[in-house]
């Protein structure tokens, strides 16, 4: 399905359209390219998840075991940290997690991993919820509303931490952050035990309680898991479980001044929620032994329900011409390189929505790129092609003249107009035709006329005939220019018996075909033409001929011409277009009425994506 272009260490996957045959259903494609589908199928066949009890809401072992068998065949979750807006990479994870649950009669939980008080905001929570819903997914399973916040588990997490201390699996460390770092060792050298590692459990428990009570300053003490300072896996060298942060949390306010770390929170949250498949990106592979260690210890202590969740890793989405890292996206917004998070050039889901990208296009993309464990770099055109494929079916056709110049039909009566009929969708005749008015003065594209036609030019030049699409055949008779030599008006005569759809019209054989709008029936519109935000395929990538690891600043790779705003003429009916409707402007591409700036009588269109090919070919 993919064509792989070998390119140093990365594989760029460019688009090869899968052969669409009657037997080649999307489901089959997904099955063949998503290894996690096989993992789930196998687990279900082995009855791996069948014995799980579930109380109907997250909770510890005793609560779950008192409940009935879990009605969800599997449980997955999408666990973003609410510290930014979702990007295209998240779309892959969303389609994967919600998609697997949908496919196998399971539930996918929406969980905010919000244990870091300093970087998280309600604005991000709201936007993430909106984007996941926009992609067409939900977290309702039967009568469960599976929307959760890791911060809701703070009481459980704290209680479990105490249990671990009592069992000798955790201790309070008084070393400074620097000392902890130094004593952690390296990839080749084992770490050194903390002098506090073997302090009595009662002492750690007392200190931990006093940490919670707010007796200590930030950074003065931490709770660590007691695993193995000599482990070959650095994540197992007594990782931190809790730290002191006298900070306000967006949901729990000032209730806590100690906060659990990601690795401590994540597996526990999965277990509390009865997750079967904890799916994450490959950089967490080396955290899996810790994930398992912690869940196993807490299951032994009777805290967590079994069977325990299992972590599976897949390769993250990398896409050419964009950056997919919240940190970099925040920088683009903060430094004003884009207008906002929802700037249509941003690779965020809110940006994509404003640009006219569609949920169905994203799902198609996720299916097409598949899910694997090997690193790859997907060519941006794969995503664009998915949007085109969806929009080619979904979008009605309209006419827009983006660079208008006036055409006068000199033998057409002044003050007169007549109706022509243009199909709304060539692939869906059931959508019918709409009326467009023809008259003596029309707008045509400036590029459709040439004073001195280059070789192979089939549109308007003196003496040449073209068909005005859905209208008449005309012959160009000349033009008028201003003092600067710029063409201001083109002149032509029309052939009365050549009207499209009338008998004999097709006896006129012309090579050129132009679109037009009657001047008296057109509406002016602001049209924003978007191009790639970055001019290089790998923004901030490696510098050629430089020492290993040196990279460019991704900001230097911004495309200075990523937006241009023009004044176009569109069909009059588009004057009161509904915001967010996407059209194919014949010959130009797909355009969406801007969600926020479109006002009655004042349409604003964003170019979603150009047509794959030129006039007369794709999408016509
Ligand atoms: P970033 O690196 O941009 O900050 P993140 O991984 O820190 O992203 P989270 O909010 O923690 O962002 O991510 C939520 C989920 O989305 C995680 O399960 C993560 O693995 C997944 N995810 C994030 N980026 C990608 C990507 N590029 N491709 C696939 N999945 C991704
Ligand atoms: Mg993260």
TrEMBL record:
What is catalyzed by this enzyme? tRNA(Gln) + L-glutamine + ATP = L-glutaminyl-tRNA(Gln) + AMP + diphosphate
Name the UniProt key words of this record, in alphabetical order: Aminoacyl-tRNA synthetase, ATP-binding, Cytoplasm, Ligase, Nucleotide-binding, Protein biosynthesis
Protein residues bound to ATP: 81-83, 281, 316-317, 324-326
Q: Pinpoint motif 'KMSKS' region by residue range.
A: 323-327
Q: Which domain of life is it from?
A: Bacteria
The Swiss-Prot or TrEMBL record annotates one GO molecular function as: glutamine-tRNA ligase activity
Q: Where is this region: Disordered?
A: 1-28, 50-74
Quick one: which residues bind L-glutamine? 113, 262
One protein family per Pfam = tRNA-synt_1c_C
Q: List, in alphabetical order, the GO biological process terms annotated in this UniProt record.
A: glutaminyl-tRNA aminoacylation; glutamyl-tRNA aminoacylation
Biased segments, Polar residues type: 1-12
**Gene Ontology, cellular component aspect:** cytosol
Compartment list = Cytoplasm
This enzyme's EC code(s): 6.1.1.18
State the InterPro entries in the record: Gln-tRNA-synth (IPR004514), Gln/Glu-tRNA_Ligase (IPR050132), Gln_tRNA_ligase_bac (IPR022861), Glu/Gln-tRNA-synth (IPR000924), Glu/Gln-tRNA-synth_Ib_cat-dom (IPR020058), Glu/Gln-tRNA-synth_Ib_codon-bd (IPR020059), Glu_tRNA_lig_a-bdl (IPR020061), Rbsml_bL25/Gln-tRNA_synth_N (IPR020056)
**Which major enzyme category is it?**
ligase
**Tell me, how does this one assemble?**
Monomer.
What family name appears in the similarity comment?
Belongs to the class-I aminoacyl-tRNA synthetase family.
Report the PANTHER family cross-referenced here.
GLUTAMATE--TRNA LIGASE, GLUTAMINE-TRNA LIGASE
Q: Would you tell me the protein name for this molecule?
A: Glutamine--tRNA ligase
Organism lineage:
Bacteria, Pseudomonadati, Pseudomonadota, Betaproteobacteria, Rhodocyclales
Encoding gene, per UniProt annotation: glnS
């Amino acid at each position: 399905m993919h064509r792989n272009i070998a390119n140093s260490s990365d594989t760029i996957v460019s688009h090869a359209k899968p052969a669409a045959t009657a037997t080649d259903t999307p489901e089959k494609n997904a099955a063949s390219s998503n290894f996690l589908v096989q993992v789930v199928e196998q687990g279900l066949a082995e009855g791996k998840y069948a014995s799980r009890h579930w109380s109907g809401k997250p909770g510890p072992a005793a609560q779950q075991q008192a409940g009935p068998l879990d009605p969800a065949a599997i449980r997955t979750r999408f666990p973003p940290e609410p510290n930014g807006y979702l990007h295209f990479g998240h779309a892959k994870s969303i389609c994967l997690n919600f998609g697997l649950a949908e496919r196998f009669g399971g539930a996918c939980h929406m969980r905010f991993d919000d244990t870091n008080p300093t970087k998280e905001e309600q604005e991000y929570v709201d936007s993430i919820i909106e984007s996941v819903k926009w992609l067409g997914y939900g977290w309702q399973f039967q009568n469960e509303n599976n929307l959760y916040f890791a911060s809701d588990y703070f009481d459980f997490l704290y209680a479990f931490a105490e249990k671990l201390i009592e069992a000798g699996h955790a201790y309070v460390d008084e070393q400074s952050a620097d000392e902890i770092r130094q004593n952690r060792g390296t990839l080749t050298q084992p770490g050194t035990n903390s002098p506090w590692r073997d302090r009595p459990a009662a002492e750690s428990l007392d200190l931990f309680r006093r940490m919670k009570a707010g007796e200590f300053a930030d950074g003065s003490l931490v709770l660590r898991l007691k695993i193995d300072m000599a482990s070959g896996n650095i994540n197992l060298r007594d990782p931190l479980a809790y730290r002191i942060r006298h900070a306000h949390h967006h949901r729990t306010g000032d209730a806590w001044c100690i906060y659990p770390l990601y690795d401590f929170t994540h597996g526990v949250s999965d277990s509390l929620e009865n997750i079967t498949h904890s799916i994450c990106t490959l950089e967490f592979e080396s955290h899996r032994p810790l994930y398992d260690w912690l869940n196993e210890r807490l299951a032994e202590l009777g805290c967590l329900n079994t069977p325990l969740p299992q972590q599976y890793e897949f390769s993250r989405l990398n896409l050419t011409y964009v950056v997919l890292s919240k940190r970099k996206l925040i920088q683009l917004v903060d430094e004003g390189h884009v207008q906002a998070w929802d700037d249509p050039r941003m690779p965020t889901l809110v940006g994509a929505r404003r640009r006219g990208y569609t949920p169905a296009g994203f799902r198609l993309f996720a299916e097409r790129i598949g899910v694997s464990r090997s690193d790859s770099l997907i060519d941006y055109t794969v995503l664009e092609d998915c949007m085109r494929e969806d929009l080619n079916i979904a979008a009605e056709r309209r006419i827009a003249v983006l660079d208008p110049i006036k055409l006068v039909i000199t033998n057409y009566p002044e003050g007169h107009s007549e109706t022509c009929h243009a199909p709304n969708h060539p692939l869906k005749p059931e959508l019918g035709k709409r009326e467009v008015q023809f008259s003596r003065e029309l707008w045509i594209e400036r590029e459709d006329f040439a004073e001195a036609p280059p070789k192979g030019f089939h549109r308007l030049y003196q003496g040449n005939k073209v068909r005005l699409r859905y209208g008449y055949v005309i012959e160009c008779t000349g033009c008028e220019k201003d003092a600067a030599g710029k063409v201001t008006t083109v002149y032509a005569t029309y052939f009365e018996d050549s009207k499209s759809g009338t008998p004999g019209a097709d006896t006129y054989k012309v090579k050129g075909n132009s679109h037009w709008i009657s001047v008296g029936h057109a509406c002016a519109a602001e049209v924003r033409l978007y191009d790639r935000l970055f001019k290089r395929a790998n923004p901030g990538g490696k510098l050629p001929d430089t020492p290993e690891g040196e990279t460019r600043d991704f900001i230097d790779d911004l495309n200075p011409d990523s937006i241009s705003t023009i004044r176009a003429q569109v069909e009059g009916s588009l004057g009161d277009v509904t915001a967010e409707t996407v059209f194919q402007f014949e010959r130009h591409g797909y355009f969406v009425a801007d969600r926020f700036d479109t006002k009655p009588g004042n349409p604003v269109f964003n170019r979603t994506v150009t047509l794959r090919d030129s006039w007369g070919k794709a999408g016509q």
